[in-house]
Amino acid sequence: MSMIRDLRAAVRPAARQRSQSSLPYDTTRDPRTASAVVDCAVYKNGRRVTDRLDSAEAMRKVRAEGGFAWIGLHEPTEAEFAGIAKEFGLHPLAVEDAIQAHQRPKLEPYDGSLFTVFKTLHYVEHAELTATSEIVETGEVMCFTGRDFIITVRHGGQGSLRSLRHRLEGDPELLVKGPSAVLHAIADQIVDSYIAVADAVQDDIDEVEIDVFSPGGSRGRRGGDAGRVYQLKREVLEFKRAVAPLLRPMQLLSERPMRFVDSEIQKYFRDVADHVARVHEQVVSFDDLLNSILQANLAQATVAQNEDMRKITSWAAIFAVPTMIAGVYGMNFDYMPELRWRYGYPMVIGAIFAICAVMHRGFRRNGWL
To answer: Is residue 46 classed as helix, strand or coil in its secondary structure?
Structure first.
């Protein structure tokens, strides 16, 4: 236990930031190779014993001298991955999933390897939240974990494992536990990124909530926040699709004995599983809160429309008075009250103003104006 006592501290950044900016955002392949292989190395007794090898050379060295191989790829094609799949005996179904991507997070045991799929998340910084803001970008990291190898396949621009590899290489006591230590480190880094993204999304939801319920906020925009709330709901749904399916795989890795997973490393998957459960609860609460905010926003828009209708109705009723009186006296009958009287005109005008003033005061008192 002493060799892995500081496992969690070693594989996690010292502090979580608001977004995933602390995690490398790397869309490029290694400049020294034109293939999909980002890095390929052999580790023995927790230390890197080779520089750069191809997969066949790495496996020959492992079989001859022991240790394990760690091969990292970025968006390989079928042709690029075929040789590696054949060399390590990977199952065709898992190989197909790794090439095509767009998979749900899952854990699938095969005869010679354990296939794991993780969704990576990246929070997109923005100056102002709008109805078209992209908040969460997703990618994928797939891991083939065997007795003496681990193959990572990454899709998307985020979730680079280069810094994680360097960090693990700086702690041989962790790498000596083999491929399962790398699998745990990957899972832990990805789930930690979920926590950072959740904190950032929480800030966006708080901002929208303040705008909706503050005086002059959404009331002044007549429901203009509905688009922002709906966009946030779409991004939270994308977040939920990454987190919810991962609950079961992490539970299995933390509770059931697994081939190719060291028993001591397995204990540390419990912490990852707890964090996944916490983030999932947070995402579910986001969805519920956004539903409430959206309903409140629509209710405010309805109230504002009702207020407008009451004002229009009140002014229509007030203007109906002079319209009616003018219509009566505009019928040109010879015998009408006060038609020939000298003060008839000012009396009618005064009566119109008096009636309109009384109606206006009544509407103001009742809150219609």
So the answer is: coil
Over the Cα atoms of the chain, what is R_g? 34
How is the beta sheet containing 114-123 ordered, strand by strand?
47-48, 37-44, 68-74, 149-155, 136-145, 114-123, 106-109
Which of 173, 170, 191, 181 minimizes the C-alpha distance to 23?
A: 191
The label of the residue with tokens 């991955």 reads 81
Q: Are 252 and 258 in contact (CB under 8 A)?
A: yes
Q: Which residues of 267-305 are buried (b: 16+ CB within 10 A; e: fewer)?
A: ebbebbbebbeebbebbeebeebbeebbebbeebbeebe
Q: Measured between alpha carbons, how far is 74 from 76 in angstroms, rounded to an integer?
A: 6
| d(C-alpha 331, C-alpha 103), whole Å | 80
- Segment 159-194, tens digit of pLDDT: 789 899 999 999 888 889 999 999 999 999 999 999
Q: What is the DSSP letter of 312?
A: H
For 113-127, the DSSP string reads: -EEEEEEEEEE---S
Mean pLDDT, range 73-95, rounded to an integer: 91
- DSSP-assigned letter for residue 331: T
pLDDT for the residue numbered 24: 34
- Residues 113 and 118: their CA atoms lie apart, in Å, by 16
CA–CA separation, 61 vs 147, rounded Å? 15
Q: CA 195, 118, 204: angle at the middle one, nearest 5?
A: 30
List, in sequence order, the alpha helices (H) in 155-262: 162-169, 172-175, 179-213, 218-221, 226-243, 247-255
Please give the distance of CA 342 from its chain centroid, rounded to a whole number. Answer: 79
Q: Are 193 and 124 in contact (CB under 8 A)?
A: no
For residues 235 and 53, give the distance between their C-alpha atoms in angstroms, rounded to a whole number: 41
Residue 47 has pLDDT above 70, yes or no: yes
